[in-house]
Write a structure and sequence with these properties.
UspA, Nucleotide-binding universal stress protein, UspA family, alpha/beta, Rossmann fold
Length: 161
């Protein structure tokens, strides 16, 4: 029986479906939702905020904290009572694996959008990397039609694709 499950959330339809599947099939497990922010996105958010306020990007720690706080609030809006939330910054695949190890997860759950081989070659695939390197099983949920019982477990917020 699964005791601890980490679910990678990127706020896409695929990650919402992965969350719904995990909630339906991992009852009784401690669930942690994890969102990983790319360093470039954090830096861009900080630089944009610095440009807007006229402050130096070098002193933009408050803006980074704000970006992280907004991401955490959004992640928490997807969580149900009793589910944990975590936020990381870095390479998505490596950060998911690191946090899964730290959380002592029995399984990693994530959605996939089924990008083309060319897209994966150019951008990389966190899912593919984790399947090859994670120390726990990885459940990959594709965007597929969902039945009503699974759909009932979807997060109640907007989704970005």
């Amino acid at each position: 029986m699964l005791q601890r499950v980490i679910i990678a959330i990127d706020f896409s339809t695929a990650s919402a479906q992965a969350l719904a599947v995990a909630r339906q099939h991992c009852t009784g497990a401690t669930i942690r939702l994890l969102h990983v922010m790319r360093p470039a996105d954090v830096a861009a958010s900080s630089a944009a905020g610095a440009a807007h306020t006229g402050s130096s990007p070098l002193s933009s720690r408050d803006m980074r904290d704000s970006a992280e706080q907004k991401a955490m609030e959004r992640l928490e809006s997807w969580a149900q009572e009793g589910e944990e939330c975590g936020l990381g910054v870095g390479n998505a695949a490596e950060e998911i694996m690191r946090q899964a190890e730290e959380f002592e997860a029995d399984m990693i759950v994530m959605g996939t959008r089924g990008r083309s081989q060319l897209s994966n070659m150019l951008h990389g695939s966190a899912t593919e990397w984790l399947i090859r390197h994670a120390h726990q099983p990885v459940l990959v949920v594709h965007e597929v039609p969902m039945n009503d019982s699974t759909r009932a477990h979807l997060p109640p917020t907007e989704i970005n694709d």
